[in-house]
Every structure is written in C-alpha cells, then in structure tokens.
Amino acid sequence: MMPNANSLRRSARRHSFAIALIAISGGLGGCSSQQMYATGQAWHRSLCNEQPVDMRSRCQADANRNYDMYRRDTTPAKPD
C-alpha cells in the first residue's frame, strides 16, 4: 500500500524539524559535523522501519551511507 500525500507531507515536516533540531543542538553543544551526521543517521535508520516494506530497503541503504560518501556527495566540486 502506497502512503498518501498527506502522510508524506507530515513525514517530510517531521524530518525537516528533526534535522533542524539536530543541527541546532549540535552547533550549541560543540559536536563535529561527523558526530551530528551519525546522530541523524541513527534517527534516519529508525524511520526506515516506519516505511512500507517496498520502500524500506532503499531507505536503509540511504541511512547506512557512511560520512565520507555523504561529504563527497554534498560538497561542491572545486573548480580547476
């Protein structure tokens, strides 16, 4: 069964709020970006269990991406 649009919006709002909360608390607490990523990654893994079965494996693969891969994917390429 596919989630409806309202449940996807609620989920996106929860994700946005949680990410903002992690970023704020990490910045205030002096955590490194890698520590904050690990916290968000653990939270992301727990959310995967709430996903429909057919979406769970993709969610888990994304949640298990290591920090170095995350940095490589999110850091803009340096001009030559």
Which structural category fits the helices and strands?
Answer: mainly alpha
Q: Note poorly predicted spans.
A: none
User: Number of helix segments?
Assistant: 4
Order of helices and strands: HHHH
Compute the gyration radius: what is it? 15 Å
The N- and C-terminal alpha carbons lie at a distance of: 48 Å
Q: Estimate the global geometry from the Cα principal axes.
A: globular
Number of strands: 0
Oligomeric nature of the chains: single chain
Structure description:
The mean pLDDT is 77. This protein has a domain at 32-75. The chain has 80 residues and is mainly alpha-helical. Helices cover 75% and strands 0% of the residues. The chain has helices spanning 5-29, 33-48, 53-63, 67-74. The N and C termini lie far apart (48 Å). α1 (5-29) runs antiparallel to α2 and α2 (33-48) packs antiparallel against α3. The relative contact order is 0.10.
Briefly say what this structure is.
The protein is 75% helix and 0% strand. With 80 residues, the protein is mainly α.
Key attributes of the depicted protein:
single chain, 80 residues, mainly alpha, globular
What does the secondary structure layout of this molecule look like, with pairings?
Layout: H1 5-29, H2 33-48, H3 53-63, H4 67-74
